[in-house]
């Protein structure tokens, strides 16, 4: 490409340009030809200047950039049926004329244009026969509908016509190109594919209304491409010998790769097309049981061969799971042989692939993020598959409860922003929320403790609007919380109260910055990640088990109405970006437990445990208590995993009694030994009444 651009620059020097910006070439017989910086800018210019009412555009599976330009300018793209090449054989992927007539008949006067892509990417790069294109033209003329071609690969399509279509063998590729383009009222072209130039496109038409509007664009706004660029484009268009040779070499390279893979037994779609090879991942034995074979196969190929492919562009519920291996212009024959050898070796004797699942199944495959399936619990997989999304209504929960909360977004030095909820004045009391439940779980604390403390909740990365997710390790989370507190102006030692997974962040904060911590409270927390038999489960699963256990074992369980209310609050408070949430699972798998570091915690500590907690076993809470010097322990009767919400009176009473001992001006050093005897109120279970209803 570099050599060709240098040659075109030499050819372009002093080249005379016509009044419309480009000299005429025989195969592009349109009255108005407007050069553009790229193919996509040509598409946008056509759609923006199209005269008349914006209605349906019948198409054969256009490239996404053109589909977006049509939608952006008020058109309604309507796809023809049967655009999936795995369902057909033979060298051409012709337009379904019956379907075309039906769609036009269903929309009398409601079709703005028929738009077809030559050597259509959505159909695997297979060409349209000239005979079929002429039939489309006849139908369009009879219906009074303009025909527009995306002719970016017109030369490639013409070469296939010369090779395969009866009556055209032996003809000049340029004369066939002229015949293809002559069927159209307008064409767009990107020049980087067939013409071997690293920029440029064009819009061409002889349709009077459209031509007038295009010329008006140039006269009022000027050319989109400067003089030197227009000369290079003109040189590329005129280089008939160089372009034809380049297209022929690439078609030969594609055929060679197709033959190599086919002989090795890989399931390729045949016959060989013009610029890419389609590989059927669903037909490969390695992916027989995979729910998403395409991303898994792409990952497998790239990891073990260095060959980069992409998902095939065809869409729809019944689209085959195909991989597109595009052959770039100028790929040398030895490179094609090496690519074929690597892929064949991997297919015959390579290591087993890793199954991937999409984080967001609704995302386009080319833009989706994926995660290793083996690290995702089955109920989380089901939630992703079903498109389940958290309600993420923490601010609404707090407002509904009447909590006097200030809502802020603050930037942090680590990059990104942190969502903050603040209420009250006094010593800072930072509640660190569970893994995927935000500030709403602490609504009672915002309401009841803000007369004595500056109550703060900072949403962790992935929760709510917090996107400071560069480092999801426990140390990274602790540093994000610390940085956000500083942005909020917190001064002096702060009280930390971490619930569930948030307790691990709080422990890390206290270990890294003990001089900045007045006290540490661990609420139904642990010394390790993922305490539910090594898993993280959907919140609705956790809630059912937790409330069921309270109902089965507790003498003072909430009635059905209150249970539904509490579950509703927690589900409204649920929040986690799916992609970030799956990254947390990777952290859980690698983050060491903190049991050996517990004796290093040198701040006053209280462990609060719900007696019927179904997530954190009592044994774990006792290990926390016994591992931290001077640690206090309180057990809330009638509570499960969420005592701050379900038993707020008892919880707040225990918490404030502890905090009052360690507010600013009080002794902030740790106690001298573990408090395990019954002579302190914190060492016996708290069994006060029903709590707030």
With strands numbered from the N-terminus, the spatial order across the biggest sheet is: 13-14-16-15-17-18-19-20
Compute the separation of the termini in Å. Answer: 73 Å
The CATH topology of the largest domain turns out to be Rossmann fold
Low-confidence segments: 83-87, 665-681, 684-693
Total number of domains = 3
- Count up the helices: 23
Helical residues, percent: 25-40%
DSSP strand content = 5-15%
Summed over residues and divided by their number, the pLDDT gives a mean of 88
CATH homologous superfamily label of the largest domain: Alpha/Beta hydrolase fold, catalytic domain
CATH class call of the largest domain = Alpha Beta
Helix/sheet category: alpha/beta
Strand tally is 20
Overall geometric form: elongated
Largest sheet: 8 strands, mixed
Explained architecture:
It is a single chain. The chain is α/β, with parallel strands linked by helices. The chain has 3 domains: 237 residues, Aspartate Aminotransferase, domain 2 (3-Layer(aba) Sandwich); 129 residues, Aspartate Aminotransferase, domain 1, CATH 3.90.1150.10; 290 residues, Alpha/Beta hydrolase fold, catalytic domain (Rossmann fold), CATH 3.40.50. 40% of the residues lie in helices and 14% in strands. The chain has 23 helices and 20 strands. It has an 8-stranded mixed beta sheet, sandwiched between helices. Helix 16 packs across helix 17. The longest helix has 24 residues.
